[in-house]
Amino acid sequence: MTDTPIKAAIEITNPTGLHARPAVKMTKLAKTFASKVLVAFDDSGPWIDAKSVVKVMALKAPKGATLHFSASGMDAAAAIAELSDLVRRDFDENHERPGAASDTGQGHAG
């Protein structure tokens, strides 16, 4: 095992940025990994614990900000890959009108 951190930088495209719901999703995912996982606005830091919802929410990262992830440990590569993917997917939030994800397009007749 190497102690060299694995890093990634991902732009937030979520229209509301890293607000409460995405912060909770991100920290819950980070906690599933044994590796130490950190996040920052800049590659030079300051780095915060990505497993702390309070610290992640305090970032108040807006849309367009770049999140820098750093992980070290046995499953660091998986942690970086999955966290990066979560950000790319806009934290699995639907930005259409409410209910659009479940809309089948069949509407009501009449």
Report on the architecture of this protein:
The protein has 110 residues and is α+β, with helices and mostly antiparallel strands. It has one domain (6-91): Histidine-containing Protein, Chain: A (2-Layer Sandwich). Helices cover 28% and strands 18% of the residues. It is built from three helices and four strands; from the N terminus they run βαββαβα. Strands 1-4-2-3 form a four-stranded antiparallel β-sheet, covered by helices on one side. A hairpin with a 7-residue loop joins strand 2 (36-40) and strand 3 (48-49). The chain starts with 5 loop residues before the first strand and ends in a 22-residue tail after the last helix. The model is unreliable at 97-110 (pLDDT under 50).
State the CATH class: Alpha Beta
Q: Provide the CATH architecture.
A: 2-Layer Sandwich
Flag low-confidence runs: 97-110
CATH topology: Histidine-containing Protein, Chain: A
End-to-end CA span? 65 Å
Q: Give a short account of the largest sheet.
A: 4 strands, antiparallel
Q: How many domains, in number, for the residues?
A: 1
Q: Considering DSSP H and I runs of 4 or more, what fraction of the residues is helical?
A: 25-40%
Structural class: alpha+beta
The averaged pLDDT comes out at 88
Number of helices: 3
- Give the tally of β-strands: 4
Q: What's the CATH H-level homologous superfamily?
A: HPr-like
